[in-house]
Specification:
With 65 residues, the protein is mainly alpha-helical. The chain has a domain at 19-54. The chain has 2 helices and no strands. The protein has helices at 2-8, 15-49.
Length: 65
């Protein structure tokens, strides 16, 4: 009887594990982005709380001579 049960058992699929790994990777990437965005916002708020007015970073392209 146990031989019949072993033959009917399908091998484990790794599709679920790969989907889980992809979901976890996306969560890690989103968490990293969120932490960096919150850190930058915290720096900006600290600057404003110190009474400064020029706290936003400026993107100035390099001069072409």
């Amino acid at each position: 009887m146990s031989d019949n049960r072993d033959q009917d058992h399908e091998p484990d699929s790794r599709r679920g594990a790969l989907i889980g790994l992809a979901v976890i990777a996306l969560l890690v990437i989103a968490g990293y982005y969120l932490v960096n965005a919150l850190r930058e916002e915290g720096k900006r708020e600290d600057c404003l709380a110190a009474g400064r007015h020029n706290c936003a970073p400026l993107d100035i392209p390099p001069r072409k001579d």
